[in-house]
Fold this protein.
Amino acid sequence: MVERLSSIEEARRVVFEAKRQDKIVGFVPTMGALHDGHMSLVREAGRRCDVAVVSIFVNPTQFAHGEDFEGYPRDLVRDMELLGAEGVDFVFTPSASEMYPSGESGVEVDPGPLAKRWCGEGRPGHFRGVATVVAKLFNIVRADLAFFGEKDYQQLLLVRALARDLAFPVKIVGCPTVREHDGLAMSSRNEYLSAQERSAAVALSRALAAAQSAFDAGERDGAALVQAMETTVEAEPLVRLEYATVVDPATLEPLAQADRGSRALIAAHVGRARLIDNAALGI
Ligand code: AMP
């Protein structure tokens, strides 16, 4: 039976008890509205750990001004059912006041240089909010392993840097992106899409596929690979490109010359959804 924990105190207690029994604790932080992408992380935690803790918290501080915090999809009943069926032990569902006892004037974590570009530019304050909430969650759920999706590639790098630079005793495990049948990366925000927008949204993964085929055909010029992505997106009038780029997979700096393992990143707006996706070239 899955047990719901609402307070930091309770979450600390169950993890402490599991660790006392020498159990390996796995942690999957989410904002809920769970889909198969989230569940792939949960299953990986189940395979690699003795106890799985999932958090569901729509973190207000990672939404930029004017973004979709209020309208973000929430369905705790269904989420609990899915997690129960998967054999998850604990679901941590704190309130905002539990997580932010000082309100808006609390201590925050500086997300460092990885947060400056790409989604950091389009969503001011987003990665500061992510770094702060992830640090707090790591302090509450003292897991051995924490699972994050490659779908949010910049976030994954940032969380790895956070764990390393602030010496959190947790191993970060990156998990592959789970996609719909037509290639669209699963996302809670896909719920916002009308039928027409849903068909158009496949332009993001198609753009990555275009960069991938150009790379496979021998193209290494960064600008040409970006052009291949832009051309694909421009063919779809319902999709408004925010950025398309080819970057170093560790630093996220844009590349004049791509290489095997370089990362293609894309962000675009479709209706009221802001969607992101990425792929490793040549892999
Ligand atoms: P979110 O609820 O959007 O904050 O996501 C929670 C975790 O699930 C993050 O580590 C995401 O990267 C991961 N995630 C979201 N969508 C996917 C997906 N399609 N495939 C794999 N992981 C995902």
